Each structure stands twice: as C-alpha cells, then as structure tokens.
Amino acid sequence: MRAREGARNRPPETPKPDKATAKRLRRSGAVVHAALADGRWLGVAIDHLLVLGEEDVEFSRPWTDAESAVWDGDSRTLTVRWVDGSEPSAFRTATDDVFDAVTAVRERITTSQVHVEIMGTSAGDVRALIRRGAGGQLFSQLLARGPLTEDERRRADELERTARSAVGLVD
Predict the structure, then answer these.
(1) Distances (CA, A) of 17 to 25, 30, 33, 42, 158
(2) pTM for this predicted structure
(3) What architecture is the 2-112 domain classified under in CATH?
(4) Tell me: the pLDDT tens digits for 87-102?
C-alpha cells in the first residue's frame, strides 16, 4: 500500500516524444523540446521557435521576431512577445518540467540581440535593437510602444543610427 501512495504523490513523468515525433523534431532543427498540453511539441531550434503537430510544423518564427519570453509556472504557460506587435503566443506545457526548454528560449532571444539602446518617451521606452539573423547578418529593429511625437520620432531615428554605428553598421 505504501508504494502506491508514494506513486500518487510523485510529480507526473516528463512526456517523451515517440520515435517518429523525435525524428521530426530533429529534422526541423529542434535541439530542445517540451510537450504541450494539447499533444503538440514546442521545439527550440538554433534559429527559430517551432510547434510540431501530429504531421508537420504548425508554427515557426525566427528568434529575431521575438522580443521577450515569460514563463508562468502556475499556469504552465510560456508566453512569447513579438517585435511586430502581433498577439503574443502562449504555449501551455504538459508539465512544469520545462527548465531546459524555457532556458533555451530565453537564451536564443538574448543571443539574437547584439546591442540595445533605450530612450524614454512620453509613451514609454523606445528601444533600438541590433539583431543577428540566422545567417549571421546584423540588422536593426526600432521598437516603440505607443504613439510618438514628431520630436520623439526624430530622437528615435537618431537612437537607431547610434545603435547601428555602435556595431559598425552604416546607413
């Protein structure tokens, strides 16, 4: 009886992909993965985040599209916010044993950000990011949350020029 009670109190075992799914995850470039609550798989590849369904990749975005990621352990949800302002993507995991996957997501986002310059405005911060794309090329992104005045737009453009100059990118 004691063994059964202990088994009931043990956290759920981390799901493992079957052989076919593991092969499809590898083929898609995923080096780390986590089971999602709906039966799909979250994959972390070197240059992109993906979701693998039963047959194929259903979602894929490069790390340079990601602004940030937040893990909520209570709901077992990883939320990724995108630089283009599109709706954040929320991925609910099958278990909370996702340290490797969540860490890999944060590392990939951070690794793609080579340099950041920040400027305060009346609407909040404006950030000029220098990102490294999948092929190693550098490019800039200017992120503003909310409307900017004409003066703030000029200052934001200058902020981007300063960030580009800091890494040797010329206009």
Answers:
(1) 9, 12, 9, 11, 49
(2) 0.84
(3) Roll (2.30)
(4) 999 999 999 999 999 9
